[in-house]
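Re: the 101-residue chain
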Amino acid sequence: MQTLYELLGALPDDDADRLRAAFRSAAKSSHPDNNQGDPDAAQSFRRVVRAYAILRDERQRVAYDSLLIKADQKRALSSRRKPSSRIRNMVRDAIAATVIA
């Protein structure tokens, strides 16, 4: 899933001017008038507008950034757990192979 920053083509450390420039570019490229053959263009445009509304508001942006950090931490934690589950599966398979043999 894309972050709001990715949706706009912006970076988390962009200032207000850069964020506005990224929004204008994303809005122009996703506007329904410029994508008349795309039935999802209106929805894409609304997502870009909503992303900008969240990121330009300082309180909402801080809250969103903290959610991104928590999601990254959770993802990192779950990726550390995967090798142990892989090892367990390999051990289980090895025991099953030994029993069958």
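The CA atoms of residues 84 and 90 lie 10 Å apart.
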